[in-house]
């Protein structure tokens, strides 16, 4: 049974997150994770200053399934199955040692899967004391009045044939990124509830939502009432990369990269369970992770009374929303995905409250039974001005526009976007203000001098015309009619 439980699918990072959960539940303020490389004799230990356990509590903690997952729990409890310590540890090592101190004395127990395998009976041989090879690590606990230390050695699922010290160091980096994400709400703010260190270095929180950035869009907090408790939800659209410097952009990508980190972030008691997933939602078929929605991230908090309804697994890595609220969640996600798509496609343009009718676009989609086409909007001031003055050239100009419409390099644009991980430059992006000003002046003079539009109305029209709506300061600086005429 134990060998079977080793295949639940933990990574080293997710397994250690389960151990940290126990430390947090024990009210630890400081948690230290130590990775020691020594080839096949390498070890990992987690030391906390939590409440600790007496002999009876330690014995229960080391037993598999010592609690019923259906039992009532405290509201801030991060566990459920009573398996996390053991299954997470066995997934990485063949020997698990736990020592704890509460009222002075230090108690210690360990599991050794090699001992179980060599046993001639079918007994569950939980061993007292600690192996000699890890005794020096347990000395760390002697300097504390209370706390617990968990030691993994015989790391057969980590130190495999060909595994090098550099591989070990790379794994430590992955673990740090994962824990910075999973426990970011415990680590952040001026009143941090825990200090988490890896090999003496403090782990800095990673905020998936970039809430401190001025161009991040965040919705008001919404609540969904369910039979298993209240769900809290808040939507975010992250800034386009044009608003981020290189370090900010790399940091915001998260452990798995921009595209992989989109979707819902499901928390239970502020502990992150699911980091970026559309949770099987969608219309007709489940949404997949696409470049166009890479900026969409939605925070979703559930109480621990909702574990069964949300199908939370032992590894705390999957969740499925109850049927009763799926439609509501789809509508919320559709709005966020739409906003994220607009920011992504329009290169850093802030999400505005203007409706499509209030803004004149140069291109407009034309949907028909066979699909969709993109047409140049002849009502756009730049286009209509040329057509109205074209005279005999009007048919040729219309023919030219039609050729442009029918030869849009859609496939090439899509390939370039997918491979370069960004959309092509549009809207005068990164062009000097003088370039915008010269085109804007031509448009303005045409409206005022040739069409007889007042200067005030001309500015208003340009302010609602793509792409000049992004340059209100240049429009405000346009001269009055008398200055143009002179």
**How much helix, percentage-wise, in residues?**
25-40%
* Distance from first to last alpha carbon: 91 Å
By CATH reckoning, the class of the largest domain would read Alpha Beta
Strands ordered across the widest β-sheet: 5-4-3-6-2-1-7-8
Radius of gyration: 30 Å
Number of strands: 16
Instruction: Name the shape in a single word.
Output: elongated
Secondary-structure arrangement, i.e. CATH architecture of the largest domain: 2-Layer Sandwich
Description:
It is a single chain. By secondary structure, the chain is α+β, with helices and mostly antiparallel strands. The chain folds into three domains: 2-202, Heat Shock Protein 90, CATH 3.30.565; 217-345, no CATH class; 358-485, no CATH class. Helix content is 34%, strand content 19%. It has an eight-stranded mixed beta sheet with strand order 5-4-3-6-2-1-7-8. Residues 76-81 and 348-357 have low confidence and may be disordered.
């Amino acid at each position: 049974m134990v060998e079977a439980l080793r295949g639940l699918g933990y990574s080293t990072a997710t397994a250690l997150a389960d151990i940290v959960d126990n430390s947090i539940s024990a009210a630890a303020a400081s948690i230290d994770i130590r990775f020691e490389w020594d080839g096949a004799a390498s070890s990992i230990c987690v030391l906390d200053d939590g409440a600790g356990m007496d002999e009876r509590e330690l014995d229960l903690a080391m037993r598999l399934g010592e609690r019923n997952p259906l039992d009532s729990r405290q509201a801030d409890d991060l566990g459920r199955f009573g398996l996390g310590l053991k299954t997470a540890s066995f997934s990485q090592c063949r020997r698990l040692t736990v020592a704890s101190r509460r009222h002075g004395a230090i108690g210690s127990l360990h599991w050794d899967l090699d001992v179980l395998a060599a046993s001639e009976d079918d007994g569950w041989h939980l061993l007292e004391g600690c192996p000699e090879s890890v005794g020096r690590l347990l000395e760390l606990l002697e300097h504390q009045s209370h706390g617990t230390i968990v030691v993994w050695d015989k790391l057969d699922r980590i130190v495999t044939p060909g595994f090098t010290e550099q591989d070990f160091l790379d794994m430590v980096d992955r673990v740090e990124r994962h824990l910075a994400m999973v426990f970011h709400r415990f680590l952040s703010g001026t009143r941090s509830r825990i200090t988490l260190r890896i090999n003496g270095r403090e782990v800095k929180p990673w905020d998936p939502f970039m809430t401190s950035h001025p161009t991040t869009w965040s919705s008001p907090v919404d609540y969904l009432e369910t039979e298993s408790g209240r769900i809290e939800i808040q939507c975010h659209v992250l800034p386009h990369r044009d608003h981020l410097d290189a370090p900010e952009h790399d940091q915001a990508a998260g452990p798995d990269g921009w595209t992989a980190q989109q979707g819902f972030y499901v928390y239970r008691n502020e502990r992150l369970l699911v980091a970026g997933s559309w949770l099987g939602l969608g219309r007709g078929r489940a949404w997949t992770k696409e470049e166009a929605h890479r900026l969409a991230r939605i925070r979703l908090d559930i109480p621990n009374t909702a574990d069964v309804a949300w199908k939370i697994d032992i590894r705390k890595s999957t969740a499925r929303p109850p049927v009763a609220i799926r439609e509501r969640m789809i509508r919320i996600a559709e709005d966020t995905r739409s906003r994220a798509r607009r920011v992504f496609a329009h290169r850093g343009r802030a999400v505005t409250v203007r409706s499509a009718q209030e803004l004149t676009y140069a291109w407009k989609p034309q949907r028909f039974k066979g699909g969709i086409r993109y047409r140049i909007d002849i009502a756009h001031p730049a286009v209509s001005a040329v057509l109205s003055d074209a005279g005999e050239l009007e048919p040729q100009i219309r023919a030219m526009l039609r050729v442009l419409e029918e030869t849009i390099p859609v496939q090439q644009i899509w390939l370039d976007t997918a491979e370069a991980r960004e959309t092509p430059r549009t809207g005068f992006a990164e062009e000097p203000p003088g370039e915008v000003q010269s085109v804007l002046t031509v448009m303005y003079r045409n409206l005022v001098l040739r069409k007889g539009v007042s200067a005030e109305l001309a500015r208003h029209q340009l302010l609602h015309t793509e792409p000049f709506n992004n340059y209100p300061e240049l429009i405000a600086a346009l001269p009055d009619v008398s200055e143009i005429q002179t």
